[in-house]
Write a structure and sequence with these properties.
- This protein has 163 residues and is of the alpha+beta class.
- The chain is built from four helices and five strands, in the order βααβββαβα.
- The protein has helices at residues 14-27, 37-46, 100-114, 129-138; strands at 5-8, 54-59, 65-76, 81-91, 120-121.
- Strands 1-2-3-4-5 form a five-stranded mixed beta sheet, sandwiched between helices.
- Helix 1 (14-27) crosses helix 2 (37-46).
- The longest helix is centred in the middle third of the chain and has 15 residues, at 100-114.
Length: 163
């Protein structure tokens, strides 16, 4: 087990969170995040009295950020309830298989509990068998679906793929 701890992200963490997101996108073979990601995340995380987006960071004993998770409340029409959608979970190479992912998942579950939500949902690429094994060990259940993205023309696009 690593000596990492998980906490809520602070404004001062945003440059490192953006770096982690770049690594995450590269790992998932996705397009890189938008160039001004740190500023946009700052607006989403800290620019409203009650922001929807939450960001949790895993910090090593020496203070470096080694992972992150982001999540926000969403709705299920068919179940007529809210759940917490985890958009990103990433642990930096060299820190995987040390319990950091489990710490982040426990913190995400804690966010759900704090919001009165009883479920967390997320997705992972079908080729990421290591992530699937990790989620299976947690007791999560997979559902096979496709995820689509439809660009909406307009003044400013918020950014393409999600992590």
């Amino acid at each position: 087990m690593t000596a990492a701890r998980v906490r809520a992200a602070r404004v001062s963490d945003l440059p490192q969170v953006a770096e982690l997101a770049v690594e995450h996108a590269a790992y998932e073979k996705a397009a890189p995040p938008v160039p001004d990601l740190a500023e946009r995340l700052g607006t989403l995380l800290f620019g409203a009295p009650a922001p929807r987006l939450r960001c949790l960071v895993a910090e090593s004993a020496d203070g470096d950020l080694i992972g992150y998770a982001t999540c926000s409340p969403e709705m299920s029409t068919w179940r007529a309830c809210e759940y917490l959608h985890m958009d990103c979970l990433f642990v930096r190479s060299g820190h995987r298989s040390l319990g950091v992912g489990a710490l982040l998942m426990a913190a995400v579950a804690g966010e759900a509990r704090g919001l009165g939500l009883t479920e967390v949902q997320w997705q992972t690429p079908s080729w990421n068998v290591d992530a699937a094994r990790f989620y299976d060990r947690l007791g999560a259940q997979a559902k096979e679906k496709y995820r689509y993205t439809l660009p909406v023309p307009g003044e400013r696009a918020a950014g393409g793929e999600t992590g």
